[in-house]
Amino acid sequence: MAEDWDQAERLSVADRLAAEALIVDVDGFEGPLDLLLSMSRSQKVDLRRISVLQLAEQYLIFVNKAKDLRIELAADYLVMAAWLAYLKSRLLLPPDPTDEGPSAQEMAAHLAFQLERLAAMREAAARLMARDQLGRDFFARGLPEDVSHLRKVTYEGSLIDLMRAYARLRTRDEFRPFVMDRDHVFTMEQALERLRGMLGYVGEWSDLQGFLPEGWDGTPMQRRSALAAHFAAVLEMTKQGQLLLRQGETFAPLQIRAREGGRG
Amino acid sequence: MSEREQSLFDAPPMGEQERMVEAILFASAEPVTLAELASRMPHGCDAAEAVAHVQKRYEGRGVRLHQVGTAWAFRTAPDLGYLMQKESLEARKLSRAAIETLAIVAYHQPVTRAEIEEIRGVAVSRGTVDQLLELDWIRLGRRRMTPGRPVTFVVTEQFLDHFGLESARDLPGLKDLRAAGLLDNRPLPDPNAIPSEEDEGATDQADMFEE
Amino acid sequence: MSEREQSLFDAPPMGEQERMVEAILFASAEPVTLAELASRMPHGCDAAEAVAHVQKRYEGRGVRLHQVGTAWAFRTAPDLGYLMQKESLEARKLSRAAIETLAIVAYHQPVTRAEIEEIRGVAVSRGTVDQLLELDWIRLGRRRMTPGRPVTFVVTEQFLDHFGLESARDLPGLKDLRAAGLLDNRPLPDPNAIPSEEDEGATDQADMFEE
């Protein structure tokens, strides 16, 4: 892993030592493809015309030798060995017409392509690293001048803003400090208070409608608000055990009655 | 002449020496002395002469060769310094507290802080006054000859300028405001009009106010 | 012509624009994009044209204008590198795995981890990828729209800057490699024929990496 680039270059020079090199250290190779590539180099032919059969042979011999030497082989080396043994047998036997998969020749061609591609990428990597590099061969500005970021905030105000502000101040007395206009809102608190006061008069079942406050039927909004507030209040009082509440059927009038002994 | 030198000292031609000076000075993190230049250039080079050439070459350019003591460095031409700043302009509306305070100063000047507070109905934060002072829209006027001799505020020329007024007397009067519909009857109830919020909420208010 | 331009667009003369480009690019150690140049130059300037002029002016000088993607930077001439030992950074020694991985990303980008492993015939360790990411030489690209949506890697502007490349298209030998079909993503003839171990490993790692 830690092997550096130059060493890979030296490998091809050390072809005559290849046999030893192969046996000595599996970890010296970055995987079975790497090993195959260095083996194929010793065939000294165009990678596209490489004899995959020979290559498979070499590889299997290597794996066997390694076993004899009790070198632990990584799983992917063994998988590759198995695959190459399979490929080798396929290459040696006449093609089986019933076989649907790729032909042995196709598989061999693909392996050759993989080897060629790996070799090409190695070469490309070498050429890339041989380029002039920043900080080694050419240099950036050593004394950069910082760009200062100026954030300029301008405040705007127009005469009309000013006049509006003043007008607002001068007419403030006429302002009502309300967040929300509540003229038409009857609150649940109000309703609760009202109903509690009337509780003593609700001995019989009576329609809730009858308990709505006077003067709250002017607009639909008033009516809705008063009804909703009283309904909520009634629910609350029922929960507290002060009232009984019933409804004959859906949309029928709600009726209430004070609960005996539950007055509070 | 450079040929003569080259034959005598085996030094690179002067044009080449210029390139070296350019490269060394460009890449160096600090100004480089002539002595150091000479020590880094090949034997026989005349660093001083090369520097002189380079200096001449960059005359009037966007960067210049600048002498710092006995050392040299490239520097941006002074007239282009403004390019070294990235400006971002941000226009903001004044906070409601600020615009109200400003309006009161404009309509009532000279006015004391206590008077401003009385009119606005809330305390005036120091930040608001400082902001208006910083904007050069208000300034301190004479002290009021009353107990405590409080300072007063008046609006400035810049204020008049900004708001397109010739003098503070040109400010529209209440009548004009009414005529312009700004004072008419009861303004719509509107949450922005709540006077209860203090200056602390100035930012929030400003946001609300910008609506 | 610059006068005509000035009257038409209210832009400074081209000579002046060149000076601005010089100043801005000299001041920055990092490449500056044309867009940024334009934003910092006065309205109406033609940054691209000014850059072209400046580039020409510095041809053969000790510093040169380099294009890096859409950005530009002054860099010392590579032939003068020997003068710069002082500025030389102790380059981090890259492992063979890192160098090969980098090359594969550069030539095959966007490329997935599984594809890198396919090409190298060995698992790519996380450290290798991390190192390249840390150097800012590669970055994550888009996810591949294939099952598992694996992430892809591409090279960065810093990579281009470091190796003095205008764009990834200028990689040495790229055309020949492409012509030879060596950059094709040629799948194995039959998935069943792949040594299964490798395949599974690749998927796991891709997943691991996405964490």
UniProtKB/TrEMBL annotation, chain A:
InterPro entries: ScpA. This is Segregation and condensation protein A. It comes from Neogemmobacter tilapiae.
From TrEMBL, chains B, C:
Transmembrane segments: none annotated. Keywords: Cell cycle, Cell division, Chromosome partition, Cytoplasm. Residues 182-211 are annotated as: Disordered. InterPro entries: ScpB_csome_segregation (IPR005234), WH-like_DNA-bd_sf (IPR036388), WH_DNA-bd_sf (IPR036390). The keyword Cytoplasm applies. Pfam families: SMC_ScpB (PF04079). Gene3D superfamilies: Winged helix-like DNA-binding domain superfamily/Winged helix DNA-binding domain. Residues 196-211 have a biased composition (Acidic residues). GO terms for biological process: cell division; chromosome separation. It comes from the Bacteria. Signal peptide: none annotated. This is Segregation and condensation protein B. It comes from Neogemmobacter tilapiae.
